[in-house]
Amino acid sequence: MTTMKLGFRSFHLAACGSTLVLLLGWSVASAQTENASPPSSAQKADVAEADKAWQELVQATEPPPPPAEWQAKQPSPEEMAKYQKSMSEMAGSAADKAKDFYTRFPQHARVAEAKDKEHLMLEMAVQLGNTNRLAQLQALEKALLANPTQDEEKRFELRSKSVQTAAMSRQAEGMPAMLEEFEKGARELQKEFPKNPEVYQMFLMIASNSEGEKSRVLAKEIVAGPADNEAKEAARKILKDLERAGKPITLKFKAVDGRDVDLEKLLGKVVLVDFWATWCGPCVAELPNVKAAYEKLHPKGFEIIGISFDKEKETLQSFVVQKKMSWPQYFDGQGWENKFGQEFGIQSIPAMWLVDKKGVVRDLNVRMGLAEKVEKLLAE
Asked: Domain for residue 22, yes or no?
């Protein structure tokens, strides 16, 4: 997943082990109905029972917050997996409660809300890894799509969500499998909705997380297709970045801690240039992998240069100390207007570039297999 400086709808895929984004909470607006005549005792009893069932449903859709200790300590992959599994099961149970509600009280004013909640909870259950709910979700979406009154915008929304859910259901297999499933679904959408530009936003997400020729082919398709201007501009940026691969770059500055940094003086070493920010969830989620690679390979000649998109210097310094990030950080307080972000045209973070021993950019997408790629360059 990336944090993008773009205005159109985002399509996100989060690999298993990344910081978990809780998608189960939302506010529930209250609704009031008027009775034409005073209710009987039996009607009052029915209303009370329905209100109780509704409150139980609302409560079921409000998951507990993550463990308090996670605020101070990054959870282990095992802890994250266990928590994610419990959340997926909770979402599935909430979907059952929603269906039970509208089945028991078909005339209730909140029936439509309950049906929406069933759909949302099934989506969340599957996206969080509960594949046992996939067939149930697919059956529900098939029924919704079969509704002849459904307009094309709503149909596209339903279909695009189903594509994302199918991709997320393969998160245990890793990002490549998720991207493969996502592209498969996006291609189907392209056939069903040939004039909808949002399909190309999906292609953009895939291109942004792919490597080499795969990324290039998709970016060219976006530029040539009926995508909106922002998507086309982002695709041109990907093509420009790909042209940068195989060429040297210059990077020289005084780090936030006072160290002088000059990429030319690091010739003979393999260097990761990490464009990131403390406020970027996906960036923070990558940190354990980055630190693990650094601790393992720094003695062999691996260096990291951080380019921070933060605006608050104290926030950056505190975070770096807390997370024990010993490599230098560039900071100018300009956020997205960061000097090097502008120079290199960075539109989304984390952006992680790998520079070889000769100072040449060799890889512009090293979020997958960082340690292996560094080791390969160190062996050259």
From this structure: yes
